[in-house]
Description:
The structure is a homodimer. By secondary structure, chain A is an alpha+beta fold. The first copy, chain A, has helices spanning 26-39, 79-91, and strands at 5-10, 48-53, 64-68, 72-75. Chain A is built from 2 helices and 4 strands. A 4-stranded mixed sheet of chain A has the order 2-1-3-4, covered by helices on one side. The model of chain A has no long low-confidence stretch (mean pLDDT 96).
Amino acid sequence: xxxxxxxxxxxxxxxxxxxxxxxxxxxxxxxxxxxxxxxxxxxxxxxxxxxxxxxxxxxxxxxxxxxxxxxxxxxxxxxxxxxxxxxxxxxxxxxxxxxxxx
Amino acid sequence: xxxxxxxxxxxxxxxxxxxxxxxxxxxxxxxxxxxxxxxxxxxxxxxxxxxxxxxxxxxxxxxxxxxxxxxxxxxxxxxxxxxxxxxxxxxxxxxxxxxxxx
Lengths: 102, 102
């Protein structure tokens, strides 16, 4: 694997009344996650990549992200949730069940 | 896995003299791949998703895409290469070694 964890945040924007991940803070929270991973020394080949993505096609369950190669999908609300995903999953290897999408 | 194959194309654009995947046709070829997968009836949950992504951080080896959950990285030149990746890997499950990134 080129990256141990490759994380994709949906940053898609849709016009109202359609909902979209961007309306739930995904743009700012992807940037936050990327910075946080860098601060922790986790960014880079063999480690973690926090990526922007277009629509991940799970709008109704968003905002959403997916962690590969595991294929674990998460939703999130705020920085607290992002911190928990980073610390538990990306550092500790333990899936955060309370934020996991079915 | 929510998608059997989740494919991310780097569509990132950088200012010259920096090179970028967008300058090698990635935007048009991602759209082509997405249409082709839809035409073949492969698109959707449990099947294939062709996704837009921001910079995948392999600019020097681009244009690039990655297929998860396998974590197989490809470069490509034109529609012929995209067709081969779809038919061999996404339909047949066989990696296209000649286009694979190390």
